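Changelog excerpt

This revision adds worked examples to the README so contributors can see how folded entries look when concatenated. The first example is reproduced verbatim below.
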Amino acid sequence: MAKILYDATKDMPNVEYVFGGTVATIEQKTDSKVEVTFTNHLRPTSYDLVVGADGMMSRTRRTVFGHGPNNDDYLNRLGQYGAFFKIPRTNEDTDYAQWWNASRGRLILKRPDQYGTTRVYVAITDSNLSRFDGVDKLLKNRSVQEQKEWLAREFERAGWMSERIVRGMMECDDFYMQQIAQVKMPEWTKGRVALLGDAAYCPSPISGLVSIKTAQP
């Protein structure tokens, strides 16, 4: 879907795509403009409208709407943290997805892909949210290596192919980890800034549902 949108608009005269950049600040001006500064080489720029569609952990949401009345970034935590990555395929793998449940709320799901590798999802579920205090800090700091090390410790003696999975995780270059949570906000717009998608109303990345709540104008 992203490729279809990009291919259809990339050559339009009034459309500019910028990759590899990050928004640093968003400031609403009195002249009905929004000034945005960036962390890379891009100069500060004023816009008529800023739309944040930057996911459940939206930087736009934190910058414009703050951390919420409960200082929780508008997140309703659901007690599950998961990671995605790929590992080399071996003779242990089949043509079907395989799922392994271990003690202490741990699971491993692996499946073949069309590129000759094996895709893996590992997750931990626990109603005791304090178990995740350490990895929460690592997620905010974007410390991928330390996130891997945290998961490696959690999956010690998990059985099945866990040793191979952890070894592949430590060597992979496409690791991504995130918590499973819901985004609950009283409104999705503020001045000339609006939020869309998971940034505004994520029901949870594993729900398979969409929100039907109506935002206030």
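The second example, added in the same revision:
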Amino acid sequence: MGKLFEELDFRETPLGDLILQKRKYLQLDGLDVYEVKLGDAFLMSSLFHEVEEALSRLGLAALDGKDWDVVVGGLGLGYTAVAALEVPGVKSMLVVDALEGVIDWHQRELVPLGKTMNEDERCRYILGDFFKLAADPDKGFDPDQPGRKFHAVLLDIDHSPKNLLASANASFYTQEGLWKLADQLHPGGVFALWSDDAPDQEFIADLETIFCEVKTDIVRFPNPLLETVSESTVYVAKL
């Protein structure tokens, strides 16, 4: 039957202890679930990935044409990135994460989607602070091509524009921070964001000062452990 619980990796980070663990849920027919903890907080679980996939699907659906260069902010367990790679119009993808351990898990294929990403030549990992890179359009997200512009930026790091993993991230969610991000997009480019909270009208108003089109989608998904339905928000803003 295998172990009911296994810690796959542990490392210390400036944000707290980073842990990758695998848990077998007997109530779900022995399903293996991968979980990530940072400090005392559960960051993500492979049991819930509908919203991460919807972030890519909804964000990229707003683009015109094809041959898109995409940035994914936050690697997590890889669901946003792999969903983006499944869209035929994606030509290249940078996945930016500030935690070396998270990138290492995928490169070593300790997580289920690591192999898929490693074998796709369009995908490249970038070790760096997404928010610092977003705030510097002259350098931008690609260390090999300073100032490079992209067709889409898909962001899944903080819990919401107000519920942040680190207080330093707050400046990104201001008009000034969003302008700097928009400066790294092609005309007609898209910024899409996952949020665990309901739509934030103040944040929507800030987006509308910069982007021509702004919409929100409520994504509902089942919680089989609690036998309830949860929901999150995906923001999609287009230049």
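Reviewer comment on example two: The first strand starts at residue 5 and ends at 13. Residues 50-238 form a domain with the Rossmann fold fold (CATH 3.40.50.150).
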